[in-house]
Structure formats: C-alpha cells, structure tokens
Amino acid sequence: MTNAVVPNILLPVVAAALVDADGRVLLQQRPADKSLAGLWEFPGGKVESGETPEDALIRELEEELGIAVPHACLAPAAFASAPLGDRHLLLLLYIARKWVGVPRALEATVLKWVRPADMHALPMPPADRPLIGLLDALL
Ligand SMILES: Nc1nc2c([nH]c(=O)n2[C@@H]2O[C@H](COP(=O)(O)OP(=O)(O)OP(=O)(O)O)[C@@H](O)[C@H]2O)c(=O)[nH]1
Asked: Where is the Nudix hydrolase domain (predicted)?
C-alpha cells in the first residue's frame, strides 16, 4: 500500500433551516454573480480551515443575515451528499428556532419564509431536493 496524497474532494458546507413560529423556513435567493444564480437555498456556506461546522454556521449567519445564533440553538437535522463541479458536496443542515436579531438579506438578493411542502415548487440547488421531505418530517 502506498502513501499517495489523496486530493480532498469533499466540500464541507453548513446550512441552517431557521424556523419561525408558524413552521416556515427561511430561504435566500442566490445573487446573479454567483454559481447556481437565482436558486433558493438555506443560508450558510463553506466550512473554512480550522473551523468547526457550528462555528462556520454561526459566522455565515452573521455575515449573510446579521443575526446571532447561540451554539446551543443549532440542532443537527439532516445532510445531503452530491457532486458539485469537480468536488463532492457534503451539506450539513441544522435547525434553529431561536436567534437574536431580524434576518436581513446582506448577501442574497431576497429572503423568503417558506413551508417545506411549498419548497418543491421552488428552484433550489439539486443537492437540497432530498432535504425538503426530511425537513417536512422534522418540523
Ligand atoms: N449555503 C448553501 N449552499 C448550498 C446549498 N445547496 C448547495 O448546493 N450549496 C452549495 O454549497 C456551496 C456553498 O458555498 P458558499 O455559499 O460559501 O460560497 P459561494 O456561494 O461563494 O459559492 P461559489 O464559490 O460556488 O460561488 C455553494 O457551491 C452552493 O452552491 C444551500 O442550501 N445553502
């Protein structure tokens, strides 16, 4: 057996289903200048080197929405695994029901509160499709 260096093809991404009192989930629309432009996604982003998934998600939610989510309010919920370009996306989805502040679209085009059952009709990244039913069952 050789010790060849295996390229890291896994792309770890964290995302949040922020759930309001009516059981709706916050989605954001990806801007025109990004990959998968115009698609509706869960707020979140890539886990940077040296970060835990939870630290990365707390940072992304602050950058993208201007809200503070306490670590204890992030509940692991589901994951998705799908090819993404020359890498392989591993998307970790957390549920949060409590946060501080009012979410604003600081990076996305627009925000929208959506029931899981209504997400089937929205254009979302292919990796997110299996998460819709899982979310519907969990909420
Ligand atoms: N935040 C988020 N990212 C998702 C979702 N589904 C999905 O495939 N992704 C992918 O996961 C990656 C997240 O990266 P990012 O949000 O930090 O970075 P980015 O938009 O600048 O990505 P880019 O470099 O592809 O343009 C993107 O490639 C994005 O397309 C989702 O529901 N939420």
From this structure: 9-136
